[in-house]
Structures are given as structure tokens and as C-alpha cells.
Amino acid sequence: MAGPVARWLARTLPAASWAVLLALSPWWAGLLLLLLLALGAVMFDRRIASYATLCRHGLRWGLPGLLFALQRALGSDLLAWGAALLGALVGFSLLVLLESLLDHRVRRMPAGRMTPEWSELALAPVGPPARIIELARASWQDAAAGNLADPAGAAVRYEAHGGGRGRYVFAQGRSIERAGPRCCFGPGGRWFAACQAGRRGTVLWDRQADRIHRLAGWALSGWEGEQPWLARGSDGVPVSLHEVLGRGRS
Predict the structure, then answer these.
(1) Contact present, 102 and 41 (Cβ < 8 Å)
(2) What pLDDT, on the 0 to 100 scale, is given for residue 228?
(3) Does the pLDDT value for residue 128 go beyond 70?
(4) Which of 127, 138, 211, 240 has the maximal Cβ count within 10 Å?
(5) Which residues contact 54 (CB under 8 A, 6 or more apart)?
(6) What secondary structure letter does DSSP report for 197?
(7) DSSP for 94-154, written as a single string
(8) What is the pLDDT of residues 16-61, one digit of tens each?
(9) Cα distance between residue 242 and residue 250, in whole Å
(10) Are 164 and 180 in contact (CB under 8 A)?
(11) Who has greater pLDDT, 94 or 49?
């Protein structure tokens, strides 16, 4: 019971402190900070997912603090509360619109590119047959509970450092730092995967080549044979590790 409460407090207390800070600050300073957060959410979207998420949380929790600071500056009378409620309606509507545009951004077709006619499509050469990819689910384990099942049969332990951070120590002498307790092994034991601290990405260790990849913003979707496939967020399209590394995300 203490674990979930501690995690809830760790998420809620910083956000509540941020709202209180804006409520006690001048309203124009809070407005400037929220505009900077909105700009950051747009700029970091699809670039640094963790920063974009942090900016969104700052907007959601900071807006009530700004509205309280506004009504306090207007005199805290009935008219001030009415202006604050109107600001809440407009502010949260704009916030919902911003998040909707970021979550459903449409990739436009490059200018000058024409859609081929049906006759061209009919005469076009047939490409190679499509390949259906079936991913095997990742068998996640809780390292904090101990008794990690390594397919290779080697001993491995997890040393928690607090704040969701920890270190994995393997019998081969390899240690993996700045990782969370959620981990799994590949079907054949070649790969080891763990969520980064704060679940802001994935750490992959190729035990055969002894190479570690830290993939910020990527989540493990599953395995195709011995190869890991990853996706951007929970609803992203899975791609192979080779394609992820080709995008410069290692």
C-alpha cells in the first residue's frame, strides 16, 4: 500500500507545487511561463517525447494557478471570480485544442507531388510480396521483487537507488545503470531490455555483441524471432531496431 501512495505523491506533489507557485506569482509572469510551455510542447513534439509530455503537464497544472493569480490581482470580488471562470473556460478549451492538434497531426503530401492515375497504377510493376510480421509479447518482470528469470541461467540482481532508478548487475560483470525495475529478456536470452528511469525510454543490451542502446522515447513492442521491435508511445507503429538506430535515436 505504501508503494502506490509514494508513487502517487511523487507525481502529484511537484505538479501541485507548480500550481501553487503560479498562484502566488504575478499573473503576467505566470502567463509568460505558460506561453513558453505551450511553445515547448509544440517544438518538442515528435522530437523529445519526454520534454513534450513535461510541457503538457506544466500547462494542465499551471493554468489553475494562473487563474487564481488573475482573480487575486482583480480584487478577489465577485467580478474577479467571474473573470477567472471565463478564463478557465477559454484556457482549458485552448489547451484541449492544442493537445488534439498535437496528437492527431496529419502529414501533408509534399507540394508538387501528384496522385498517380488509375491507369498508371494498373500498369505499374508489381512489387515484392508483402511480409506479415508477427511479434511475440515481451514477458516483463519486476526486478524489485527479485528472482529474475534469466533464460541463460546466469545470476542477475537489481540494486534500487530510489526515485525509480537502479542498476542491474549480471554475472558476466556487466552492469546497466539508470534503469527502472521493469525488465525482460528476449526469447533466446540474447537481448535484455529495461525501462529507463521514469519510463522515458528503453535500454537494450545485446549480450552477444556486448552493446548497450539507450533509446529515449521508444518503448519495446515485442520480439520477432531474436530481434526487438519498438514503437513511439503506446499507439505508435512498431519498427525494427535497425530502423530505430537508422533514425539516430540510439
Answers:
(1) yes
(2) 92
(3) no
(4) 138
(5) none
(6) G
(7) HHHHHHHHHHTPPPPPPTTPPPPPHHHHHHSPP-PPP----PBPP--EEGGG-----TT--
(8) 777 777 777 787 777 787 777 777 777 776 667 677 677 777 777 7
(9) 10
(10) yes
(11) 94
Asked if 179 contacts 193 with a C-beta cutoff of 8 angstroms, the reply is no
CA 182, CA 46: separation in Å to the nearest integer? 24
- How far, in Å, CA of 69 to CA of 82, rounded? 13
Count of positions (residues) in the chain: 250
Q: What is the CA radius of gyration of the chain?
A: 24
Q: In the chain, which ranges are E strands?
A: 141-142, 156-162, 165-170, 175-185, 191-196, 201-206, 211-216, 218-224, 227-232, 239-240
Distance CA 190, CA 153 (A): 12
**Distance between alpha carbon 43 and the CA centroid of its chain, in Å?**
15
pLDDT tens track for 130-139? 667 778 888 8
Place of cell 506479415: 132
Distance of CA 81 to the CA centre of its chain: 36
Cα–Cα distances (Å) from 64 to 33, 34, 52, 70, 149, in that order, read 13, 11, 20, 10, 47
